[in-house]
Amino acid sequence: MKKIALLLFTYLLYSQSWAQSGYKIEGTIKGLKPGAYTLAHYFGYDQTITKDTALVDDKGVLSFTGSKSLPEGLYMVLKPNKSRLLDFIVGPEQHFSFVSDTLSIVGNMKIEGSPDNERFFNYQQKMLGYSQELTLVQAQAKVRQDMISQAKIGTIRRQMSEYYHQFVKENAATFTGKILSASNEIALPTPPKRPDGRPDSAWLFNYYRAHFWDNFDFSDERLVRTPFLQRKLERYLQNLTFPAPDSLIQASDYVIGKALKGGSKEMQAYCIWYLTNQAETPNTVGGDAVFVHLAEKYYLGGIMPITDSSTVQNIRSRVAIMKPLLVGKSMPALALSDTARIGFKLADIQSKYTVVFFYDPDCGHCRQSTPELKRFSEKYTSSVKVLAVSVTGSPDNWKKYIHDFGVGAWRHGYDFSFRTDFRKEFDVVNTPMVYVLDKDKKIIARKMAVEQLDSFIDFYEEQSKLSKK
Fold it and tell me: How far apart are CA 377 and CA 385, in angstroms?
């Protein structure tokens, strides 16, 4: 009898485990229009990964089912037109249901079978109530303009803040609590005062930057599948980091270090991938150095946990091209000839600054940029020389370009031997490609738009003067 009972228990346990495998998310939203709806999870705030689709009937019933468990994170249901309908959490409980209506999907949401989603929507419903009350009082305040209405507004805002902090404290171990904590600003202390009696804003900024990641759990890979990690990375780099290569490298290493310490491979992979990807198209002069550093240290150094051999090889090739061309490096030698087929060297050009303009005579963007470059060169004729290098096209087209635009005063170069691979040797992926060199032919800027040359030279001159003081 005991054996039979044990076998029955084992069977029931196995049946229950089998029945709960995969995922089954069922919902009814009264008033929802029929059509194909998509289940997807966040990957940053501007990307989504589709996991399933469901057809909604005329009663607003939908069902997402699958034999394999979904990766945990913050999910969304997208309408047929791909706009977002609602968000919910997919955690360990992947068999749950919900009921609501289109009058207020969040406000009327009821969940069964997912405690974390109950918390997730209970919080939103409470905040929705506060927000509705606040909107009403603010509307009244515009009419009355009395102290009582202003006091009510302050009270409601204080209640919202107190509820948030209490909720996060009580639910700190849950995914809902981690999402709310990650998405909210840190509490700032009262800053010390400067000698003039004013609050020390610099101290406050440094405190904010130092504690910016305090409420973010780098060990929880689920946060990769939310919009909050990407938003925080962008804010940290764009608003809290000085836009210079050394500062950006230090900030990137700091964040990646936190991810490595957290131990989540998906978190590590996302941080390394995102920061390296952003650095590949920099917005700052010399920013290419950030990409080279991150690529060498994390991809080529074997620290990046999720990648493939082809990606590593592509990055290796990219680094090999970019590294000799970084700001501060001497410009590689150019084997060129002028229109009389007389060879010359880059070092033959004597000037405080040299602008190397790689172009295609038939390139529309190159032709649009040429008049602006001509204006610039005429303005700085005493300190700037232009070396215009035709990377494609026939010698006849090259000479016609020089004549048509009236830029004979520039130094012009052409590789009549056709041995120079401008793409690999000078990173001329697109034309025009502009380098700015100093008097020693060291690179001080690259990939610069012609329209930015004027302001860059002025800025560089000012910085040079300051550095000599």
Answer: 7
